[in-house]
Amino acid sequence: MTPDGHDDPPDSPDDHDLDWHHLQVLRWLARHEPTSVRLACPGTDRGGTRSEPLVVLPRCVSTLPAYRVADLARVAGRVTVAPCACGAPESVDGWREGLPGPLRDLVTPAGSSSRGRVLAEVRHPPIDRRGLFGLGHAGPDVPEHDAVDDDHARLVDSLRALGVATPDADGTRPAALVLRAEGCTACGVCVKSCPSGALELVGADTRILRHDLSACVGHGVCIEWCPESALSSRGHPDWHTVTHLAVSDLAVVATTVCRRCRDRFAGPGELCPACAQRAGDPFGVHLPPKAAELLRRSRAERETGNP
Questions:
Q1: H helix and E strand count, the chain
Q2: Of the residues 162, 197, 216, the one at which a domain ends
Q3: Does residue 210 lie within any of the structural domains?
Q4: Would you say 57 and 29 are in contact if contact means Cβ atoms under 8 Å apart?
Q5: For a pLDDT cut of 90, what percent of the chain falls above it?
Q6: Are the C-beta atoms of 159 and 241 separated by less than 8 Å?
Q7: Which of 14, 76, 115, 203 has the smallest C-beta neighbourhood within 10 Å, fewest atoms?
Q8: Do residues 221 and 233 lie in contact, with contact meaning Cβ atoms separated by under 8 Å?
Q9: What single string gives the DSSP state of each residue in 183-194?
């Protein structure tokens, strides 16, 4: 535990991508109430003022995750970027262009550099002495992220906290997919196949297929593996939808319990389709049509050597 009552830093400055160090810098910035913050590559030691402190990153600005930019913007209002000191200015330009539209508008190239030295190095975060004794203005709430969240989940949380309120106007879209379900049987294959846990089935007699856009990362595995070909994509949502209207119900399916396997299924009869097929041909080997097609395609790719 540090003297200001916060958790101890990780043993290594690279532990979990320097989360603890970035958090301390955010707390330091929040107490100083800047109007903007200037980001710089390693090796920069001048250019910060009280109204625009300099934050020296441990790596090139172009490697900074978008959610950290959103966190800085929430604390400081605006973010400026000093000229790249790593010799890759085109990388920094490309990094900024790749930011989500609502966030990119808050990030601009820095103006002329001053000789001031009001700065914070992420690898060696400053300690606010007034903050140790509970003095001074606490500033805005400092965003903290769950250690198990990936960059996408953190970005959604950061943009939501930042107050993104309008759809993107420049065509920049999240990776998530807007899904449609037609002919869903609530079999659960899509739920089990989703690598980010963005789909779930809820309910008992009536099962609801629910999609969380804030967790979806657009793999499309659910569409590929649906045995009924019930899922399709309508493209990508805007950031406003992801941060404010993320959860939607794709299908509502009335189900019954299979007399044989006790699983739930949609449709008439006492047996689910799989058990009904086994009952009709107990010694046969049966695959759903889509699974059979995927197996055939996989075999053909192995034979031709073109995956």
A1: 11, 12
A2: 162
A3: yes
A4: no
A5: 15
A6: no
A7: 115
A8: no
A9: S-----HHHHH-
Cα 272 from Cα 286, distance rounded (Å): 14
Considering the domain architecture, whether residues 120 and 225 belong to the same structural domain is answered as: no
58 vs 289, residue with greater confidence: 58
Answer whether residue 8 is part of any domain. Answer: no
pLDDT per position as a tens digit, 26-64: 888 888 788 888 998 888 877 788 888 888 888 899 888
Please check whether residues 184 and 73 belong to one and the same domain. no
Q: What is the pTM (predicted TM-score) of this model?
A: 0.62
Core vs surface per residue 260-276: b (16+ CB within 10 A) or e: eeeebbbeeeebbbbbe
Give the start-end residues of each E strand in the chain. 37-40, 54-56, 79-81, 107-109, 119-121, 179-181, 199-202, 206-212, 231-233, 247-254, 256-257, 264-265
Pair (157, 194) in one structural domain: no
Please indicate, yes or no, whether residues 157 and 31 belong to a single structural domain of this protein. Answer: yes
Are 136 and 19 within one domain?
yes
* 167 assigned to some structural domain: no
Task: Report helix, strand or coil for 119.
Answer: strand
Please indicate, yes or no, whether residues 131 and 95 belong to a single structural domain of this protein. yes
Q: How far is CA 155 from the centre of its chain?
A: 5
Q: Are 41 and 60 in contact (CB under 8 A)?
A: yes
Here the contacts of 263-266 (C-beta below 8 Å, separation 24 or greater) are 264/186, 264/204, 264/207, 265/185, 265/186, 265/187, 266/184, 266/185, 266/186, 266/207
How many domains, the chain?
2
The reply to whether 100 falls in a domain is yes
**How many CA atoms lie less than 13 Å away from 85 in the CB half-sphere?**
15
Q: Are residues 131 and 19 in the same domain?
A: yes
State which residues form the domain around 55: 15-141+150-162
DSSP state letter for 124 = B
Nearest to 237 by CA among 177, 295, 293: 177
Q: In this structure, are 185 and 105 located in the same domain? A: no
Per-residue pLDDT reduced to its tens digit, 243-280: 777 899 999 999 988 999 988 888 888 888 888 888 88
